[in-house]
Every structure is written in C-alpha cells, then in structure tokens.
Amino acid sequence: NVEPRSVPVFPWHSLVPFLAPTQSD
Amino acid sequence: APSSAPSGSSLPAYFIKGSIIQLADGELKHVEDLKTEDFIQSAEISSELKIDSSTVERIDDSHTHNFAIVQFSVGEHRAQVSVEVQVEYPFFVFGQGWSSCCPDRTTQLLELPCTKLSVGDVCISLTLKNLR
After folding, report:
1. Which residues of chain B does A11 touch, with a Cβ-Cβ cutoff of 8 Å?
2. Contact (Cβ atoms closer than 8 angstroms) between residue B71 and residue B82
3. Taking CB atoms and an 8 Å limit, are B20 and A12 in contact across chains?
4. What is the ipTM of this complex?
C-alpha cells in the first residue's frame, strides 16, 4: 500500500536571491 | 524549512526538477518551466517585493572547492554585492532561464536544465519595495 503524500508547494520568491546592498551607517 | 536536494548538494529542494512553485497569482508551475514573465508578474502583484536587475561582474571559482564567489552590480545604483554560493546554485537570467557556475553539476544533482552563468548575464534578484 502506498500512502498518499502531500506534495510541497514553494513560493516563487524562494527561488530568487535577495541582493539588497548593505546600508552603510 | 524545505528539505535539501539528494546527496551531493545541500541546495534547497525547490531547485530540483519537478518541484512545484506557486506564483503570486496562485498559479502552479514546475521550477523548470518558469519564465522571466512569471517572476516579473509575481513581483508586480507583491506588495513587499520588487525585482532588481543584477549584472554578473565577476565569477571567482578558483579558491574553494565546489564554491564560487559571484560579484553582482545590483539595481539602478549599480551597488556591488558579492555572494558565495555552491557552483551548482542556479540563478535565473533575464530572457534566458536557469544558469549556474557549473551547469553540468546542476543538471547532475538537481536535473534542472541549466546554462553556464557568465560575466555580463543579467540575473533576477529581489529587494524590498519600501527599503529606506
């Protein structure tokens, strides 16, 4: 028997790196 | 936190071919089927995120095994940002699709179709809309 498994769904923004420049004080 | 890819890479599972990605409008797509417009339209819907163009200025993969330092020029102000990533880490290049420093390794580990990331490529990156 194979139990049904939920398929993970990932948000689109997970795939894109944050490249915000560091703020200098 | 998402599980990692199978042995050989510690990249997140969402980069594996067949992973299901939800766009901002609710549409579901496989990671390998994403287009530039999907990211642009999702960012337009988003109240917090905006897309920046990040141009690859330098790739240095000579120092650390399986890691590379990628230097980007980000946004209209051309801010310099360097990131250290595994060589198989895929970036999404405008109008082209997934690209990495070592596309053979990306394809081997993630089965994600990928081209070679090169200096001059313009990658999709995110910033916060109301960053002060």
Report:
1. 21-22
2. yes
3. no
4. 0.86
